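User: Structure tokens for this complex, please. No commentary.
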Amino acid sequence: MRDWLHRIGTGGLAVALLAFAGLAGAQFKIAYIDPLSGGAASAGINSQKHVIFFTDRINAAGGLNGEKIEVLSYDNKVSPQESLIVLKKAIDEGARIIVQGNGSSVAHAITDAVLKYNERNPGKEVLFFNYAAIDPALTNEKCNFWHFRFDADVDMKMAAFGDAMVNDKSIKKVYLINQDYSFGKAVAAAAHRMLAQKRPDVQIVGEELHPLQKVQDFSPYVAKIKASGADTVITGNWSNDMLLLVKAGKDADLKVKWFTYYGGGLGSVPAIGRDGVGTLKQVTEYHNNVSPTLPPEEVEFHKRFTDKSDEMYYWRIRNMFAMLQAAAKKAKSNDPVKLARALEGLQMDTPYGPMQMRADNHQLLQPLFVSTLSDKAKHDVEGTGLGFITDEKIDAAKTALPTTCKMTRPS
Amino acid sequence: MTARGRAWLAAALLLLLPWIPGMQSDSSRSLLTQMAIAAVFALSYNLLLGQTGLLSFGHAVYFGLGGYASIHFLRAINGGLPIPVPFVPLAGALAGLSFGMVFGALTTRRGGTVFALISLGLGEWVHASSLMLPSFFGGEEGVTASRTKGPHLDGLDMASQLQVYYVTAAWLLISAALMYAFMRTPVGRLANAVRDNPERVEFIGYNPQRVRFIVFSVSAMFAGLAGGLHAINYEIVAAESLSAARSGAVLLMVYIGGVDHFLGAVLGAVAITWLQVSLSDYTTAWLLYLGLLFMGVVAFVPGGLAGLAMMHLKVLRTPAMRAIARSYLVALPFAILASAGLVTLIEIVYRRATQPEAGALMKLFWIPMDTAKPWPWIGAAGAAGIGAFALARAWPRIAAAWAEAGEETHARA
Amino acid sequence: MKELVAFSLLNGVVYGLLLFMLSSGLTLIFSLMGVLNFAHASLFMLGAYLSWQISRWVGFWPALVLAPLLCGLVGAGIERFGLRRVHRQGHVAEILFTFGLAYVIGELVIMAWGRNPIENHVPAAIDFAAFRLFGTSYPFYKVLMMGISVGMFAFLYLAFKRTRVGLVIQAALTHPQMVGALGHDVPRLFVLVFAVGSALAGLAGVIGGFALLTEPNMAANLGPIVFVVVVVGGLGSIPGAFLASMLIGLLQTFAVAIDYSWLDLFRAIGLKVSSDSLLREVWSVKLSQAAPILPYVLLVLMLIVRPRGFMGTRET
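Assistant:
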């Protein structure tokens, strides 16, 4: 009896020790904070797969300076308040980099909280990697040393649209429909500026801000767009708001050109179907027809995630982790402050041209593509038989815009 | 023990809690702070539900508006207003009271279902409107401020979680004492009468509408204070704090904790906050467990956790306790078996539905299993079935033990 | 302009009829049993998911019948094994029970179908244009939706006002002992009512599923507005619910079309609002932006002014 107890006791101790050793075998913790439930969950879950995929690749290649990356996922339901609750938890659990993207409102809250935390806890700093919140303010008046953005901001993407619109004389009347929050308002403002500059002949026939992720039926809005006689719609809508908007447009037989920020996002192409061919446009850093052959990352991604909704949509997450890996190598350390310094001004090559992290405002410059939905694309989206084809490529250096950022750096 | 003795005991407990081994990390103290905030909010809600019989689906309105008032006050302090940060919740209380009086005048004219529905509509109204008025509510981003930028009370710079916890705990103690005292005033007693029989109250010359209004305003004031504590802890207030989800959460807390006992709300706040914060780490299905728990409490234990505890305290010193304990001991293994089986089933299905890419291999209760094979399913279903069956057989024994205990206490009385 | 008005009218009527489909079952259950079922929108969601699943196996038309029947069965189970037990503890306990049930159904739906919206497109069988208006084709499924909604109204109105069973059930609410003494099985009647109410929610779900977006949050998104309809119409009144649905549908749709704010009104009548006024923001909200809150404003005003609703006969 005693012998039996003894064995269990030593066995348990051994297991505990092993577990402890496993923990101690240094881990570099990254906190992924995005919606994993609720209306915007589809976007959050898709990008979570990207984060796991690319960190696993780094781990397979030996990790960051020998440390394996561990991804901790937190659901924030796209609520800024909820995000700060989980941010606290993430930092307590040892996260050194916070990754977030969905919702500029959330990004504002996180960048502010990270700044405060780093001020109060010198020596325990954390970084904020933003891969999709593109309110320009984040790298302008609200910029700080700890925040890095890996997606082109609203103004940069709108400028890309400007390049695509400048010679298209079929565009005469534009309608702006956007979500009623910082990002949607930024899109509307950028559209006004861009049109005044590049197409002063175009008339803005209507402007709409609707509640974020609350509208169930966009038919009334579509009726308004139709009545305005618009031939083109510019929208920054994402997730359900994008999906339902194009769905209502299809139901009402709305014939317009869609200049969208997230028209290629999950579910939108299946929702609009063939009606979108030749009319649905998007501006992104990647789509699967950028080059005739798929990059190895995408081939491998599809081997691991096999559902037809598992599209490799966030090439920028690939760029983000490539940058992190390079910065760790350059800094020869995983200390967040050193990583941040190494990232500033870092230049790298991608299969589609060079990219660079701006030192003055921490905005990544990467090549951008304006593309249109087509039924002749080689690679399709979500099994629809439709895919995007490039209209215009803008090189990284050309996407740069002036910034008002004044950053204080740790001494 | 006297009320004063109990208050001292509570104070000592709150003081020592963050030093208990295992509670010394920042995250544990953050959890304690959240629990204390939830406790103030739940106590304020129980003034309505438990004491006055008013079922509200929109109590977060006062929590949120109090939060917004506090965060703006905090911003003013950041801007140079010479008031120490720990007093910020007073702004929340004031806002809660003011809005409680305005909205209360409209909504408390009737009780019952009409009140419940008005509170629901008003909650949705305020929540949706908040997004349209960004200069006060800050739009989707919310309003942020810093709790460390301001005049410091003797060494209290509010930077560490421990300091925030102590400030919160102090406010919890103060508001709990005030609410306890309020329920012992004539108005508080009348509130119970309004809950039980409003016609009778009217008949003896009091106006139930007026009683409801006063209790409602006081309740809104403490909800606002809780919102102020929330503002200090998170340094952000966003539309989410006004939302129906938060109103629903406080209802769950109070009902699960027990509406008939003053401390029930605190018990519920602690339990539900713990579930929200900790259980969600282990399982994404935690809302399902919460819903099942709530339905179970409504159907089987209307007195809530506090009611259950009181029931056992009553028989603790009687000889019947032995029989009860023995019957529990028999049932316990089967209860564990049944819940383990059920939880395993839920977890397997949930995992396969929400994370198919994670593969068929998973670990539950430290046991690795391959859900593509039938054995985990059969094992879990078998455990749940056998456990439930045996539990049903053991139940009469528990019931009999309690029936005996009932007779004994009767005989002694 | 004529076109906008015509389409807004059409959209408003369609939305109103959808709301009626959603709320009719709730009204039925409330009027006959006095239970305010918070899980009603969840049963609607369940109907949407079930119909999608069934139509993948056997096609749309069988699903249109089977999904509501299944929802009815679920409803009967809820009444028989859940609500009956808490009935003794009064109406508050019943409300709370269904409140918890709404959480559980929502999570069960996630368990079965995941968190992402499912691709619940308009079935091919009914995906064609019904008619053309101002050169725009109008989808048939919306016409079908209107037809089913009006059919529901007729069914409910006739079945419960003009038939013997309906009268017995109504009597059972106020005088259960008396009805029981007359030889009717009251508990079974209640199960029947709850089942029919749930089946109606399920039927609404079949159509609403592809008219809206089928995702786990649809119940939470639609739940509050259903309550608004039921209360504004008058708790328990079927014609009232119909009237309220149409009113809210039209109100919300037309509000979206109107881009004027109080500020424009003040300006039109010659009033000046100083630019630094805190209230300026309140006055400058456009009616189109305020559309989502209008139903709630209506609800609160109605409860304060006339708690019986349009056509209700009692307050609670």
